[in-house]
Amino acid sequence: MEAWLRAAVEDAERRGVPDLKPLLEGLAQSTLMLRAADWNDYVPGDGKAEGNETGTRR
Amino acid sequence: MNPLLDLSIVELAPRIAAREISCSEVTEACLARISDDNGRLNAFITILADQARADASRADAEIAAGRYRGPLHGVPVSLKDLVDLAGVPTTAGSRVLEHHVAAADAAVTARLREAGAIFLGKCNLHEFAFGTTSEDSAFGPVRNPWDSTRSPGGSSGGSAAAVVTGMGFASIGTDTGGSIRIPSAVCGCVGLKPTSGELPCDGIIPLSWTLDHVGPLARRVADAWLLFQVMAGNRNPRALPATRVPPSSLRLGLLKPYFTDVLDSGVRDQFGIELGRLAKAGVAISDRAVPHATDTATIYLHLQLPEASAYHAPVLEAHPDLYTTPVRQRLEMGRYVLAEDYARARFGATVLRREVDAALEGLDALVLPTVPITAQPIGSTALTIGGQSHPVRALMLRLTQLFDVTGHPAISLPCGRSGENLPVGLQLVGRHGRTPDLLTVAATIEAVIGQRDQR
Description:
The complex is a heterodimer. Helices cover 50% and strands 0% of the residues of chain A. By secondary structure, chain A is mainly alpha-helical. In chain A, α1 runs antiparallel to α2. By secondary structure, chain B is an alpha/beta fold. Chain B is 39% helix and 15% strand. Chain B has an eleven-stranded mixed beta sheet with strand order 1-3-2-4-6-5-12-13-9-7-8, sandwiched between helices. A two-stranded antiparallel sheet of chain B has the order 10-11. The radius of gyration of chain B is 20 Å and the shape is globular. Classes of the chains: A mainly alpha, B alpha/beta. The interface between A and B is medium-sized, with 23 and 27 residues.
């Protein structure tokens, strides 16, 4: 996420919207949480999301 | 206030049908109320006084000729200014659409028109529905009827302010993260978000196409029921069954722990009092959980931001200066969400939906507060609860956005007032696709906890 954040902030500055920097930092934190969620360990459509506890781990 | 404006639609309709009250008389009463109060509250962007008078006159003529259309015939209502009404500007509260006039009615508008509703005007809102306070509008902030220094919530803030002050008998709002239920809770009226996809969003400016819902703000559950049925395409809406489900037959699931962890003391106390009343009336209440509820905000963010940005991208590129700064910043943010994270969020939404389905097993509905806080002073951005500072926007969305993500029907009911004399909302959540069942449960709960106060 560090590389993504650096690139996003640079892009925002290049586009003339440097006020996005603190918001992008917040988005990065949120994206880290999204990627760390334990349901990411399960393949979509494997039954876990259907309430079946025997879903397939990646 | 004119006593006519104390009536609910279900009380008003038979009197209009019997010609005890004319549609013109009711419309004039609402227009007088708007004339008195809109300067203070800024609830309306466009007031259609002449058009409403003409429509009311036609409605009276139809009844005189024996053509009564049903319980919305001659009932004055308003539309959030995101919902198209043919020939009238739809501004979305933004300078972006300053010169835009709707060419046709939105699908729900057309159904309400066919049912005989009278349109009083278009209500102010948070710009493009992208906010929870109704402060960021090109037409100035909407103010809370209970305390005009405070926000009415949002984004359908003008609609809620109009309904609780008698500036119309109901309003049509939209709900992407809670935008019907939040202002209903902090202003003190009923707000219904139906099941996802149940009511058509055609002719309504989108915020986030997978999360958007349209629904009514009203004074009573029975009124919300009528409006829901008409907007769903029912040309002969039946009244809410007069025989209510007895409270002792209801089983509610109290959502914990995420849903009760962060509550302002005024909301916690009042919600607790009302739960006690429900239990005393015989309602069985058991604890339920949604295991991944803590992931709701991040899932929501990764869906809503890019979907909103996709819609606004061309204008955002050409005329960013036309948006208010907070809304422009949020729209810009969506352009940085990666496709892989959007896909992860979509899967997360499926997980949450299954968990809410599971939490509902064996129950009639889930129950929780609608908003963890009461109406906040206009301009406030953070609030400390339990020694921790929270952004107001996150608090406002905390208990409602889950059900936009999962699509379950949810309704906010007035639940008394906090120690500061500000309204508190109680939220009920029903099974997917079973909005009428949820409304039946809500009518029983409403009878136990009381009805809305009017300003």
